[in-house]
Write a structure and sequence with these properties.
This protein has about 100 residues and is mostly helical. Helices cover about 60% and strands about 0% of the residues.
Length: about 100
């Protein structure tokens, strides 16, 4: 067996592999450079203050002329405290029912 014929093929394969690695390195460098530049631009955009446009007089007038505020309750009126509903029964009737079932 002679190794002479296989040596040129190995050299050729090595050269192709080295060339491919060099191209990949160049691509990585260019991609990372482009990415860092775009991220710097985004950071500058985020740093800039956000200016909200002032509402036009029409939109302000439309909002103000909307529904009337709810009517206020009279000062003497008291609201009922929260109470549970027991399927339409009063609290007393429900307690009698529960006692008759033996619940304490």
């Amino acid at each position: 067996m002679s190794t002479a014929p296989s040596e040129p093929e190995d050299d050729n394969a090595e050269r192709e592999a080295k060339a491919m690695n060099a191209r990949l390195r160049e691509d990585v460098v260019s991609w990372s450079k482009a990415r860092s530049e775009s991220s710097r631009g985004r950071a500058a955009e985020v740093m800039s203050p956000v200016v909200k446009p002032e509402p036009s007089p029409r939109s302000v007038a439309k909002r103000k002329s909307g529904a009337a505020p709810p009517a206020a309750k009279p000062a003497g009126a008291q609201s009922k405290p929260f109470s549970m509903s027991y399927d339409g029964q009063s609290t007393k009737d429900y307690m009698r029912h529960m006692i008759s079932r033996g619940v304490r």
